[in-house]
Amino acid sequence: MTEDTFTIRNNSTKEQADFPLLKGTVGTPVVDVSTLNKQMGLFTYDPGFMSTASCKSAITYIDGEKGILLYRGYPIDQLAEKCSFLEVAYLLMNGELGNQQEQSEFEHEIGQHAMLHEAMRGFIDGFHYDAHPMAMMVGIVGSLSAFYHSELNMNDPDHRRISAMRMLAKMPVIAAACYRHSIGFPHVYPRADLSYCENFLNMMFSRPAQRNI
Q1: Virtual CA dihedral for 173, 116, 170, 157, nearest 10 degrees?
Q2: How far apart, in whole angstroms, are the C-alpha atoms of residue 172 and residue 166?
Q3: At 5, which CATH number?
Q4: Structural domain containing residue 114
Q5: Is residue 172 part of a domain?
Q6: Residue 106 in contact with residue 96, Cβ under 8 Å?
Q7: Mean pLDDT of 30-34
């Protein structure tokens, strides 16, 4: 993102001040008015944020009026049509699509983190059978920091990465476990011989009395 300056002048007081003009890779340039009140004693008024950029992102670009959604520069429709979920996950985490070896190693690592700590089964069983699965999932995801508390320094890139990998790996397992608890079915462990999506379907819908995938 390149930076220039933009001058704002108050015609009533003749006071003026310069503010950074930020230009992203794509999209309309924005004026950084975060110091407007400090410099000129004013606030901006923009109901509905119709002319306000709320954040800066190196991952996503959105233009709702034009129907544009980009992830790392790739249109979302192309990613949905040509890439798997884990290929998109790799893209978001690393900034570019991986080659065959990189993607294979990434998916293998995801598989290594898929298992839940066995004590979490007791935590899941502690919910009433008719508890909403989403409420259960929120509680269980929140408890992950109690089970995996050794890598929680978000200022450490390695800690951020392993936390993201654990989340990617364990979310399908948690979601499936919550659903099966709500219908009274036994927990199903992830399998090393199945893909990410195959595992999720197997954990959700397999039955002990039937031959599954």
Answers
A1: 180
A2: 11
A3: 2.20.28.60
A4: 108-205
A5: yes
A6: no
A7: 92
